[in-house]
Amino acid sequence: MFQKNLLLAIVTLVLFSVSISNLNAQLLNLTVKAGYNLSDVSGNYPVETNNKSGFSFYVEKDIINLLVVTLSGEAGYIQKGFDEEVIITNKFGVETGRGDIHYKLGYIDLSVLGKLRVPGGIVYPYILAGPTLGFKVSSGVSSSLSELNEFVAGQEQFVSDFKSTSFGIKVGLGIEVSLPLISILAEGRYNPDLTSSYDKNNIQLKNRVYEFLLGVKF
């Protein structure tokens, strides 16, 4: 299943890149972005969940790049998932330790983002929004506590049952600083699923991610 999903994501990414590259070259600019994110899930998971740290990496090309409005195609990789805190007790019910279980999901994301910019001198604040389609390419569960190894192994099937595709939206704020040869960007984005990414055993979950990105625009 992993190999099948990875192949599908790669083929889709290539087709996406080719289709964007075939557009009017005078309107295209290339941006590389990467950064830190915090991911979690919403829904009726039976226990409380916590944010999990991860990273995101994207390549973006402008389809339309005007003074105030930009329309861009974005492709990249994003880590999602969540943490669950587990308390370990002895046979008397006394706490002997606690640790996090990390539910890890990896997606290739394809997005179309519209940006509304505030024109100025060399600094351009902007807002962004657009739909995103994700293809799951990896999943796993881990913990730093050896006492949880048996439980972690039992949760592998749960995390692998997350759907192979997800559909969501990205909204956020950014700022672009125009330099002589390149531009520097910083973005803060919220990326929630609009449809359930897990729907099984009467549990429905949606991914949600807060992203903090830095980028270079050529």
How would you sum up this structure, described in words?
This protein has 218 residues and is mainly beta. The chain has helices at 2-21, 149-160; strands at 30-43, 52-65, 69-89, 95-117, 123-143, 165-178, 183-192, 198-200, 203-217. It has a single domain, classed as Porin, CATH 2.40.160. An eight-stranded antiparallel beta barrel has the order 1-2-3-4-5-6-7-9. Strand 2 (52-65) and strand 3 form a beta hairpin. The protein starts with a helix and ends with a strand.
Task: Summarize the structure in short.
The chain contains 2 helices and 9 strands; from the N terminus they run αβββββαββββ. The protein has 218 residues and is mainly beta. The longest helix has 20 residues.
Topology readout:
Blueprint: H1 2-21, E1 30-43, E2 52-65, E3 69-89, E4 95-117, E5 123-143, H2 149-160, E6 165-178, E7 183-192, E8 198-200, E9 203-217
Antiparallel strand pairs: 1-2, 1-9, 2-3, 3-4, 4-5, 5-6, 6-7, 7-9, 8-9
